[in-house]
Design goal:
The chain has about 425 residues and is an alpha+beta fold. It contains 14 helices and 21 strands. Strands 1, 4, 5, 6, 8, 9, 10, 11 and 12 form a nine-stranded mixed β-sheet that branches. A six-stranded antiparallel β-sheet has the order 15-17-16-19-14-18.
Length: about 425
Amino acid sequence: MIDIRPFRAIRYSKKAGHIVDLVTQPYDKIDSSLQQTYYEKSFYNYCRLILPLESNKYASAQERILDWLKKGILLKDEKPSMFVSRQEFQIDGKKFTRIGLIAALRLYQYSENTVFPHEVTYKEPKTDRINMLESVQKDLEPVFFVYSDPEKLTIKFFSKIMNNIPIIDFKDSIGIKHTLWKISDPKYIELITNILKEKILVIADGHHRYESALTYRDIKQKKGTWTKDSAFNFHMSYLVPVEEEGLIVLPTHRALKEFSLTPTRLNKLKEYFDLQLIDPTAKSLETFLKAHSQKHVFCVYDGKKAYGLLLKNPKEVSKLINANCPPEECLLDVTILRDIVFKQVLGIGKMKMHKDILYVESTIDALEKVNNGDAKLAFLVNPVDPKVVWRIAQKKLRLPEKSTDFYPKPCSGLMMMDISSDEKL
C-alpha cells in the first residue's frame, strides 16, 4: 500500500521573472554548454540550485535557496497540495500529451515490493545527490514513477481537475508546453489518495535520486527524533499511469570510444546476426530499425560503412545472457547488445561512462560522434516499450544502464519540497 501526501511546495514568485527563463532540464541532462546557457538566462535560473557552476556547489545551492526565500524569490505555499502536471510535445511531427500527479511519496525499500527499479545504479551519482540533500534539505527534483491504471480512474480524475484554471501554463525553450493545476481541496486529495493506495510503482527515471533519498532518510532517522510524518521519510514524486498514451520512451544509442570493427569482429558478428549493408545515413538507419522493430535488431556504423544486424537464433542467444532468466523477460535488444555484441563479439568487460562509452539520444548525434573522432563505433537501437519496463521491473530484474529515455523529462524548477527535520506532512 502506497502512502502519498500533499506538501507545502516551494515555488518561484513573480519576483523571479518569467518562468521560461527559470526552469531547466533535470540535472543529469545538463551538459557544460547547457549549464552556461541556463546561467545566462537568469540570476535565478534553477540550474544554479541543481547544478551550480561553483566548486563548492552544495554550499552554493544552500546559500542561494536561503537567500531567495529571504528575498521572496521563492515562496512556500501556505496550504499543502498535490499537483496535476500536463506536458504537450511533438515527436516527428506527431503530437503527444502526458499527464501525471506530483505528490509526496513515502520512501520504500525495494524489498517491500511496493517500489521497483528497472535500471542499475552507481555509487558516484548517489553520493553527489546525498551531499546535495544534506546541504539544502530540499527535494529539488521529482522522481518519475509509473503505475498501472487499466480502469483509467486516475486519468478520469486528472481530466476533472484540468477543468479548473491552471496555476502555470507556458512553453519551454525546446517547445514543450507545461501546464500545472493545484489540488488543495481535502476531498479531492482523499479521492486520489484512495485510488492510488493499492498501486505498485516502477521507477521510470530518477533511480539515483530515489536511492539517495533512502540513504538520507536512514541517516536522519539514526541521528535524531522523528515521526512517521517527518518529511524526509517522503520524496517529491511524479506519478504517471503506464496506460497514458503520451508515455513515450526514446532510444538511447551507444558510441564506443576505443573499439573498432575489425574483419575478425565482423565475422564474429555473423555467427549471431544476419548482416545487411545499409546506406550510412541517419534516415536509412532509422528506417531499417523501424522496419524490423518486431525483431531483435541493431545498426552499427564505423565512419565509412553501416550494417543492419538481425538476430539469427534467439533461443540459443538467450542461454548466453542468463540461463535462469526467462527469454521473454531478458531477451531484449539492450541486453543482447551488452551481453552478446559487447562481451562475446568485441570482448569488452565493464565500461565506464564518458571514458569508454557514450550514450547518445539521436541517430544524427551518434553518427557525428564517429565522424568527429569522438568514438570509433556507433550502435543504434530501437526504444524499449514502457509496458516491457513495467513488467520486467516487477520481476526484480534490471536493464543495463541508460536502457530507457522517457521523454520528456519532468520539468525542473516548477517546485521543490522541504525535507528539513522539523517539516511534517
